[in-house]
Amino acid sequence: MDLLIQDVPTLVFVVVAVPAVLAIYIVGTEYLVRLLPDKQRPRVRPWFWVGPALLFVTAFLVLPALGTVVTSLQDHDGNFIGLVNYQRQLGDFPTGGAWIAIRNNVYWLILYTLFVLFFGLILAVLFDRVRYESIVKSFIFLPMAISSVALAVIWGFMYSYQPADAPQTGTLNFIVVNVFHQAPKTWLSDPTVNNFALIAAAIWGITGFAMVILSAALKGIPGELLEAARVDGAGELTIFRRVIFPLMMPTVVVVGTTLVIFALKAFDVVYVMTAGNFQTDVLANRMYKLLYQSDNPGGASAVAIILLIAVVPVLIFNLRQFRAVEARR
Amino acid sequence: MTAQAVAREEVVRAPAWSPAWISQRLQKVLLHVVVIGLTAAWMVPAIALFTSSFRHFEDINSTGWWTALAPPFKFTVDNYAKVLSSGNLGHSIFNSFMISIPATVIPTTIAAFAAYAFAWMKFPGRNYLFLALVALLAVPLQLTFVPVLKTYVSVGLVPQNWGFVGVWLAHAGYGLPFAVYLLANFFRALPSDLFESAEIDGAGTLTVFFRIVLPLSVPAIASLVIFQFLWVWNDLLVALIYVGGTENVAPVTVTLANLSNSLGQGWHLLTAAAFLSMIIPLVVFISLQRYFVRGILAGSVKG
Lengths: 329, 303
What we know:
The structure holds two protein chains of two kinds.
Chain A: H1 2-35, H2 41-71, H3 84-90, H4 99-127, H5 133-141, H6 148-158, H7 171-178, H8 194-219, H9 223-231, H10 236-264, H11 268-273, H12 283-292, H13 297-327
Helix pairs in contact in A: 1-2, 3-13, 4-8, 4-10, 5-8, 6-8, 8-10, 9-10, 10-13, 12-13
Chain B: H1 3-11, H2 19-52, H3 57-62, H4 78-86, H5 89-120, H6 126-136, H7 142-155, H8 159-162, H9 165-188, H10 192-200, H11 205-216, H12 218-234, H13 237-242, H14 252-263, H15 267-287, H16 289-302
Helix pairs in contact in B: 4-15, 5-9, 5-12, 5-14, 6-9, 9-12, 12-16, 14-15
């Protein structure tokens, strides 16, 4: 506990001092800028304002990303070994090296993205039609607030397994045994179901995010448009397919690309629930294991670069979207 | 109910007890059943956890959590007492505060300056820099761990010497792209007349920023603060890398993950610990949900 008491002044210091230092920085540089001739001022000033942010992202994102490219081409002692690390990760198709993780990331990418969009859309449309919309939305949204670790504990409990002759305490196995009259399943260690069990848990956590954004887009659709369709005698399903869905498409795409990026970066749920065992590994978890358990920074960096290569197409697409939106301003 | 929903209901109104009226009523009932049913089903995992955290050890392992919802009620707070006294969960909740607060304050302040420049100052390469910053949003953090960690170790910026400074700075770096993006979009949407009239009055850049922009941007800053705080509080990966699992420095997510590995089927303690770890984010989230939602929307719909 001694450590705690010592830390409190540090916390206070940081919370007060950091903004103070930064405020002094910005005020101080403004005085420096004022020493310059009138014409020079607008040219110099912006760099003082964006400087700290650029410094941080350069130090923590840009340079390390470049450094990882270098590390991925080196062995443990820093000697250049070309693409050996990549060959080790990608050599044994289909089950060796990183391939199981890549396969699982593909599962994540497809199932997670599609189901979240599906649930998000359905819930947004259904909830839009009831008076107590904001209350039910809060409930769906609530899992957004909790950590993936807590989420993993919640779902670990849902998936909990007891031998067939014992009473089932896990919700899912209780249903499997008592409603479907099947043998209970070991949801997290049975390779035929465990990836889907993990993905389902993650879907539960993020659907609220998709729902909130899609719901806002839905409210942006002019009411007269829907009314006109109804007056013309269109059924609700037709209206959804022909009017609502096309109009929401840009938002669906934006949410979809965000979810794809989340799926590629998936880590916490896998790390806590199975630690990547029983063929549930994903790239992010593999990278962590290589780095910490195998002391193999070269291999870990190679996996990270593979992850980046998977993200790049999504990134370019995302930027195009972004530019298109900017152009409309 | 939204204006739109009202409009919808008024479109067609069939005479009472006609077949059309009955079918409309049935559809309404069906809608409510589906909506409430889905919401209830969605809450089952959370209710299971919450209920179980108040059950006795023997009960959790012999009967399902749903049996506790019927009399006789046998709830207990022993699990909470045990987790807080034996485990180091209390300590790690404190650590989580120690990590989250500065890791929120630092990037928010820096982002506010940068966002103002991106939104209202002209400089060469502004749009490209902003685009590059947005692109960084998609970079997997995993990519950065090895080099940053190497640098930290070589300059001695490790938890033993510097406590949480390393993780504060890292979170600041990782949080900045989103923070600048969110604030710049908000700042840009402020009416330009404000700036013009202030300039005519002879106000300098500093006055405009501190007296006009910041006070007007409280909602955006609030949503950013909540976002970043929840993100850091709930983060596991960054904490594992830069802080590690040592008892005296581990934040609550790391401790819970360790508990989950070591306890395995010790659900009575695990459920209580999980719920304790959720209290702070839930309180923040429920009381400030409006801002949180606004942050999400600003980040993805408006673009």
